[in-house]
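User: Can you help me understand a structure? I only have the sequence.
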Amino acid sequence: MMSTIASAMSGHHARCDRLFAVAEAKAAEGLWDEAVRAFTAFGAEFDRHLRAEETVLFPAFEAATGAVSGPTAVMRQEHERMRALLSQIELALAARDPDRIDDYASTLLILMQQHNVKEENVLYPMCDAALGSGAGELVARLDLGLAPA
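Assistant: Let's start by predicting it. Here is the structure, written out as tokens:
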């Protein structure tokens, strides 16, 4: 199992990014049924990631540091913005509107990239430092379905 929060969560970011790229490509090709399936797969994995952070990682970090209005609060706000964009993509998919899909997907991609940089370069290393020897046990509780490293 991956031993650090940073490596586990960054690995899961990469998995989500791959699923998103496939979904975006299917929509761009006008393969609507495949695009819906691909965005559904991405959405499920993306939700798994956000829930792991919000229900396991962030509370553990906040308990260890006492910082409840700091970086985790910002990340939660960004999660809500990204969820709203994904909902807009789903509506645009249902309408088979490639322009709206492209607009929302492009915006979501930019937000995800900026969000991931903040988490990977700042928050996750802070989590590893704050949780110390408990980081490995916490990674197991994240339930990200990652293969052993």
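Now, to help you interpret it: The two ends are 5 Å apart (CA to CA). The CA atoms of residues 63 and 131 lie 10 Å apart. Let me know which part you'd like to focus on.
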